[in-house]
Design a protein that fits this description.
The complex is a heterotrimer of chains A (about 100), B (about 190) and C (about 650). With about 190 residues, chain B is of the alpha+beta class. Chain B contains 5 helices and 9 strands; from the N terminus they run E-E-E-H-E-E-H-E-H-H-E-E-H-E. Chain C starts with 15 loop residues before the first strand and ends with a helix. Classes of the chains: A alpha+beta (about 100), B alpha+beta (about 190), C alpha/beta (about 650). The interface between A and B is small, with 8 and 12 residues.
Chain lengths: ~100, ~190, ~650
């Protein structure tokens, strides 16, 4: 029964190649609450250890991220990623390239 | 390029490991004679003794003297690469679609659905697997209960369809001796 | 498989050692407490500000040592805490003994993320058992997970533990004795990121893991608690209540402890004939023990509230709301609670830094926390502000005394933030700036058992490690202030009536070893306007700041040493260039206020810093920098006020 689920999940994954994305330079920090994006990669300017940590937290290429809410002072921001919620500061979110999805 | 999801599971034989893969990854079942790239080389070298494909797994047996702790990582890399070229896997014997269906059905009956039936004193056997139609015979206590029959049948059918998407129907008959009749709720579905 | 299933290494003690690894909020500490009960001890890892928790689990007559490693999301360390975890699991690292086996706690609701950490732990090659937590929550949220399939797919034992269930715990305990029987993975998980992702996907698929639907309850609560307006109001209300409880609810309890020990001391003094012995027993020893126990109500209440806030999930929300402000000090939102607690007392404040995940932040907050205006400073401020400005003076519509007090609190808070910023900068040298990330856990009801455990271990740790230091300092200071003893004949020849207790104690202090020290350090403090008697007060306040008031009262031969204001206004310099001039000029009083604002005049704080950082180095640094800061600022104040007067 799990197999059915699996196949559906695979099918629902967008098959659009990276180069045809509408805005290749979108960053996670640019998304507004309610918007979702798919992680493309982590910017090269991000420290390798930080990039690695973002990966371990679930911000891996292909992962779907939804912006849940901003702090009343605008920073940090709560994201939903791989089934849990995590707050990042904008400085970190700006290092994550995303492709907007509806 | 995305990597095919897989993980190793130990078997009773320490030289043999089942690499679980999604159903439908490979268009073959049974013993494999030729595999792509590195995996093929390992099969012809002294590392891998046998390579067999199940509906949801690749079963690999290492040669005596090779250990999974030593060779495992290499086998994984080779298998991962080989799974990207499903058309290049050649079975030892010609595999027909009926063979695929029968293997998928056997896989279902060997799995958790079969376990469930057996744990309730029931028994299921394959009657036929032919031309995208399959038939099983159910025997034992649970078949007397129509609700159980329906639940079991729909579970078996959905698990089979997950492994063999081209399935047209799965028929379930009760044990012989009584009037053999088709289960009262056989869903006729044609896969798109 | 049996090929690498060799003998389980035993440590020198012969007991099996297990390490507990898991991400923050994965129920790791709850499991640790459930396994070890109260048989725990705390220490520090060598050379880092990371607390080490170790306990003993008794299973069927055998003892298993369990070590609760810091929570981490990855074995690629980016902070000292995570370095500890990586080192502990590294067989080649000689500093920390490698465990014989590892228990990995995994929150069933965040399985996908957690398997990444598990993959890293599995690559250590040590025997591993997965402890699956929060399965009840997974079910509540409509998710599914086949534990036996997960076990088969992982190739290591998986035990589901519902917190509070004795059966689950018993099942886990029964496994702890025979590590050799733990299944080992047939092939360790891949290291390559994309292969690792494929491995995780395959496991979840095999285990029939259904993504838990969004936790609606948590979303609904967050819609209010993180609302720009309501959330902010609730936050301030919560923090106000928090502060009120530490500040006002603890106060009567502390007074009760204090008066109990005071009356005990009086009882002893009256019944022991030898004046030296009676003074030592009554004031130094019993007073010292009372001085330690007086902190317990505050510490217990603080940890009651912190564990409630943390256990419910609100602490992360509070930190989320405050993060932007704390970021200005280079800190993160979670440091707010520690600084707020320090307004009551730096002791619980410094202990509250434990909730900070990063050792650097913990350290920076600890260095700043003693500058927050604590309640002990308050008594000193009240006395000195009364000397400095008359109650009738007004600044605009406000009373001048209130304005001065407010300014002192404000300057204290700003200085604390500035100091934390400076130390954060220094401690980050060389290394990259740590990224900020904070999991927002689902709201959960705090478990009474966990709350009780947190309070108990905080109180126990304080008594055990800090109590001795406070007691010792109290005794030494008492000896300095009371010795040498003077016979009645000596007193009479000095013109003091031996029956007049006030005069006798004033004489004793004036001629004590402390007075000698007060004279000796006069050159240091003279530029601030302090004379040797103020120096005695400053010295005496090392045991606790509020002691300054009583000591100065004794020196001034005040009738009531607790209220010496009247006596102090008439004090004059006894010698030196200013002989005969008024001692408490506005310049000196202001300098003294500023000195108290900055100086680390509190051995208890030093003791607790020693305990939390695991070495004398950082308390020494804190004492040093705060003394230099206090002296400099007091000197500037003395000069400026002197010029303007």
């Amino acid at each position: 029964m799990g197999s059915v689920q699996w196949d559906e999940r695979r099918k629902s994954r967008p098959s659009v190649p990276v180069d045809s994305a509408p805005d290749p330079d979108a960053r996670l920090a640019d998304l507004r609450p309610g918007m979702s994006g798919q992680v493309i990669d982590i910017d090269e300017s991000v420290e390798p250890s930080t990039a690695r940590r973002l990966f371990d937290l679930g911000f891996a290429p292909g992962a779907e991220v939804t912006v849940l809410r901003k702090s009343p002072l605008g920073d940090p921001v709560v994201f939903q990623v791989v089934e849990y919620e995590v707050a990042l500061r904008k400085a970190q979110a700006a290092g994550i390239h995303v492709r907007r999805i509806a | 390029m995305s990597v095919v999801p897989m993980h190793p599971e130990a078997t009773a034989d320490p030289q043999t490991v089942r690499w679980v893969i999604p159903a439908g990854t490979l268009p073959v079942v049974g013993e494999i004679a030729e595999a792509p790239d590195e995996l093929g080389k390992m099969l012809h070298s002294e590392d891998v003794v046998s390579l067999a494909v199940e509906t949801q797994a690749v079963v690999i047996r290492l040669a005596d003297g090779r250990s999974w702790s030593g060779t495992g990582a290499r086998v994984r890399d080779a298998l991962s690469a080989a799974l990207r070229h499903p058309r290049q896997w050649r079975p030892a014997e010609t595999v027909t679609e009926d063979d695929m269906l029968r293997a998928a059905l056997q896989d279902v009956l060997d799995g958790s659905a079969g376990d469930y039936i057996r744990s309730h004193g029931g028994e299921v056997t394959i009657v036929s697997a032919h031309d995208r139609h399959a038939e099983v015979r159910m025997a034992g206590t649970c078949t007397h209960c129509p609700a159980a029959g329906f639940t079991l049948h729909s579970r078996l059918e959905s698990e089979l369809r997950a492994r063999f998407p081209a399935l047209v129907e799965l028929r379930a008959t009760e044990e012989p001796g009584k009037a053999s009749r088709r289960s009262w709720l056989t869903l006729r579905r044609r896969s798109a | 498989m049996s090929a690498h299933c060799g003998q389980v290494a035993r440590t020198v003690t012969g007991k099996t050692r297990l390490a507990l690894v898991g991400s923050p909020n994965s129920g790791k500490s709850t499991l640790f407490n459930a396994l070890t009960g109260l048989r725990t001890k705390t220490g520090n890892y060598p050379g880092v500000t990371v607390a080490r928790y170790e306990g003993t689990a008794r299973v069927g007559g055998h003892e298993v040592v369990v070590e609760d490693l810091p929570g981490t999301y990855s074995l690629d360390p980016i902070s000292p805490d995570e370095q500890v975890v990586a080192d502990a699991l590294d067989p080649d690292n000689p500093d920390i003994g490698t465990p014989d086996g590892i228990l990995v706690t995994i929150d069933a609701t965040t399985l996908r993320r957690s398997l990444g950490l598990l993959a890293q732990v599995m690559r250590t090659g040590l025997p591993i058992c997965v402890v699956l937590t929060f399965r009840d929550e997974l079910t509540r949220r409509g998710g599914t997970l086949d534990v036996s399939a997960l076990r088969r797919a992982l190739g290591v034992p998986v035990v589901g533990v519902t917190s509070g269930s004795r059966n689950d715990l018993a099942q886990l305990q029964s496994m702890l004795l025979d590590l050799a029987a733990w299944e080992r993975p047939v092939v360790p998980p891949p290291t390559d990121p994309s292969q690792r992702r494929a491995w995780v996907e395959s496991l979840l698929q095999s285990a029939g893991y259904e993504v838990p639907e969004v936790d609606r309850r948590t979303r609904r609560i967050d819609a209010v608690l993180l609302h720009p307006l309501w959330g902010t109001l609730i936050f301030f209300a919560t923090m106000f209540a928090f502060f009120q409880i530490i500040f006002t609810v603890a106060a009567p309890l502390q007074d009760a402890v204090q008066s109990l020990f005071d009356s005990l001391g009086t009882l002893v003094t009256e019944h022991v004939p030898n004046p030296l012995l009676s003074g030592f027993l009554g004031s130094a020893l019993i007073g010292g023990v009372g001085g330690v126990l007086v902190f317990l109500p505050q510490i217990a209440l603080l940890f009651l509230m912190i564990s409630l806030l943390e256990g419910s999930g609100y602490l992360s929300r509070a930190a989320f709301l405050m993060d932007r402000i704390m970021a200005r000090a280079g800190l993160e939102g979670r440091a707010f609670v520690a600084l707020l607690s320090s307004l009551a007392c730096a002791i619980p404040g410094i202990m509250a830094t434990r909730s900070l995940p990063s050792a650097k932040d913990r350290f920076a907050t600890m260095m700043g926390a003693p500058l927050m205006t604590c309640s002990a400073r308050l008594t000193v401020y009240v006395l000195l502000t009364g000397l400095l400005v008359s109650p009738d003076t007004r600044v605009g519509p406000f009373g001048a005394q209130g304005v001065v007090m407010f300014a002192l609190y404000l300057v204290g808070a700003l200085s604390a933030m500035a100091t934390a910023w400076v130390f954060k900068r220094f401690s980050s040298r060389g290394g990259p700036v740590l990224p900020f990330y904070m999991e927002m856990p689902s709201y959960r009801l705090p478990r009474p058992r966990s709350v009780a455990d947190a309070i108990w271990s905080a109180c126990k740790g304080f008594l055990h490690k800090v109590g001795r230091i406070i007691l010792l300092v109290t005794v030494v200071l008492w000896l300095l202030l009371s010795l040498p003893m003077h016979s009645d004949a000596q007193l009479r020849s000095a013109g003091v009536d031996p029956v007049d207790r006030t005069a006798v104690s004033a004489y004793a202090v004036d001629h004590s070893y402390a007075a000698d020290i007060g004279h000796a350090i006069e050159p240091v403090f003279a530029p601030l306007g302090f004379d040797w008697r103020i120096n005695i007060g400053v010295l005496g306040s090392l045991s606790a700041r509020e002691v300054f008031v009583a000591t100065l009262g004794q020196v001034a031969a005040a009738q009531n040493p607790e209220q010496p204001a009247e006596a102090l206004t008439h004090m004059t310099y006894t010698d030196g260039p200013h002989q005969g001039e008024k001692l408490f000029t506005p310049a000196t009083t202001a300098a003294l206020l500023v000195f108290f604002l900055y100086a680390l005049q509190c051995m208890s704080t030093i003791g607790v810093m020693r305990r939390e950082t695991g070495s004398w180095r950082w308390p020494a640094v804190a004492f040093g920098y705060m003394f230099v800061l206090a002296w400099t600022m007091a000197f500037l104040t003395h000069t400026l006020v002197g010029l303007s007067a």
